[in-house]
Amino acid sequence: MQWSLYSFAQLDSATLYELLRLRVDVFVVEQHCPYPELDGKDTSAKHLLGFDDAGKLQAYARLLPPGCSYAECSIGRVLVAKEARGHGVAWELMQRAIAHCHELWPSHPIRIGAQDYLRQFYVALGFIAVSDVYLEDDIPHLEMLLPSL
User: Fold this and answer.
1) In this predicted structure, which of 55-59, 86-90, 136-140 has the lowest mean pLDDT?
2) 31, 46, 107, 129: least CB-packed within 10 angstroms?
3) Cα(104)–Cα(115) distance, rounded to whole angstroms?
4) Where are the beta strands (DSSP E) in the chain?
5) 27 C-beta neighbours (distance < 10 Å), count
6) Given this model, what pLDDT does residue 57 score?
């Protein structure tokens, strides 16, 4: 995988189209979850993209600065394309996302709104559950926090 981190202004139109298409494919179509995907936060975010050797977008995460979604910085819209799942890509994506957050916003903890079925995955990365389970778009979620370094 080839990894790149972009600000919104650095995204060319083709790359922006591909990342939005993949987000809709996973979160709206695959998860049967109609919600406002374009939430106004992309322009403030850093966008971490993983491309395979053929140049196809396979992984994505959105890194948000403190004060955008939470008081802490956050990682969201975490996804791996269906054909790339089961090969450790999600683990590498999250390790890279965490490292970039620590670089960009040192001494800030990282808060995520995680789907509950992925709780153990995030616990293995060092996140701690800090809320009860709640429904978001009919999917059980919980807030998790990775303490600052």
Assistant:
1) 136-140
2) 107
3) 25
4) 2-7, 46-51, 57-64, 73-80, 110-115, 128-129, 134-136, 139-146
5) 18
6) 97
